[in-house]
Amino acid sequence: MLKQILQNPWRLLLAINAAVIAGVFVHKIQLPPYVPYIHLLVDYHLGFIKRALIGAIVALFTDKVPVWLVFALGGAAWLVTAGLYARLFQKTFGFTAKTLPLFVFTAGSPFFLKNFMHTLGHFDIYGCALAIVLLLMPAGSLLFVATAAVFSIALVLIHHIHLLMYVPTIITIVVIRHYLGYGCHRGNVAFGVVALAVVAALFFAAQFLGTMPIPEADFVAYLKTRMADPSRTDLLQFAYIWYQPLAKEVADTWGRLPHNILGVPVFALLIWLHTPLWRVFANLIGALKSETHGRLVIAALAGVSLAYLVMFAMVFDYSRWISNWAVCMFLILHAVRMLPAARETALIPAEDQKTNIFGLVVTLIPRVGIVRPF
After folding, report:
1. Which residues are CB-neighbours of 230 under 8 A, at least 6 positions away?
2. Coil, strand or helix: which one is 255?
3. CB distance 84 to 129 below 8 Å
4. CB neighbour list of residue 104: distance below 8 Å, 6 or more residues apart
5. If DSSP states are collapsed to H, E and C, what string results for 156-188?
6. CA Rg value for the chain
7. What does pLDDT average to over the chain?
């Protein structure tokens, strides 16, 4: 029995992943929800401001925001995302003994669901969830492109950094599933260009016109009126981010760079541990029926990665950014799987000893973190 488990440990690794996720959740609820809590307080009561959509939606249902709502909303978003990804995996690869190693390397990656559990309450997961919805819904009509545009608008209103974080991946999914899958013509191309222009304009409006219009002391006073417990002033210590200009964010990031750059070898190691997954991805691209499709996919991967490189230069939450970059790669892998292929692609071998070791290490790493590794 032990020999069989060691030769084909993937079911066991899946169970270990579930236990690790439970442990990360227990640890997470013991930590103070600083920035995620403030995002539930800020709304459009003071006018159009950035990072306010989630708080505005919450304000429709309650005047006072308790701390536990951070974990309730974050937990619900996590469960929905996990369920959506399971459905996506079933749609594109199916759940069999042959596909289980691939599922462990994606769903069980420390970049993905485990790190989303660690960052519970942050806005990153909404981009992932909406991108998965686009991978699941029919893509043959302009309704698909319009839905992607609405999703992108919502993400920019949640936080304008989504323009670099998940909007490029959403664009990639639209191009792969709609334009490559069903063809380009004047109508759908024009519609896509207009939609992209609207999203870009909204980003610039949020970035440069969505600043807080009142003094910080008055802003904090307003936030206290939205708190269930106004005495918890420690939860408002990051209110300054609604006043911080882009130049200051960039300066802070470069000021922390000598220290934060030390995490890059760790990120490189974590990426290397996913080598079996990257090999499958490369094989899927190489197996595409159209060489043009393959070149466009590679260009899209470069574009998504460039957006994250720009984000690395602007905001210093490096562990979150590298984790979301990996998630974007996972999602694009599923999109590529939906393109016509010239041949069947081999998946991750279930009984390869080196692959098993990589899978075990990936499984045992509980998360990547927020700013620095772990």
Report:
1. 224
2. helix
3. yes
4. 10, 13, 14, 17, 359, 362, 363
5. HHHCCCHHHHCHHHHHHHHHHHHHHHHCCCHHH
6. 21
7. 93
Q: How far is CA 229 from CA 22, 37, 65, 220, in A?
A: 28, 12, 8, 13
CB 130 within 8 A of CB 166: yes
pTM for the model: 0.94
Q: Which residue has the tokens 């694009």?
A: 332
Residues of the chain with pLDDT under 70: 1-7
**Cβ density class 197-225: b for 16+ within 10 Å, e for less:** eebeebbeebbeebebeeeeeebeebbbe
Cβ count within 10 A of residue 258: 8
The structure tokens listed for 156 are 């920019």
Q: How far apart are CA 68 and CA 37, in angstroms?
A: 9
What local confidence, expressed as pLDDT, does residue 257 receive?
84
Residue 288's DSSP bridge partners are 341
Q: Give the tokens for residue 258.
A: 């000598």
C-alpha to C-alpha distance for 29 and 22, rounded to whole angstroms: 11
Q: Tokens for 127? A: 């981009």
Q: Which residues contact 31 (CB under 8 A, 6 or more apart)?
A: none
Q: What is the pLDDT of residue 199?
A: 97
CA distance 32 to 209: 31
From first CA to last CA, the distance across the chain in angstroms is 34
Instruction: Select from 196, 133, 75 the least CA-distant residue to 331.
Output: 133
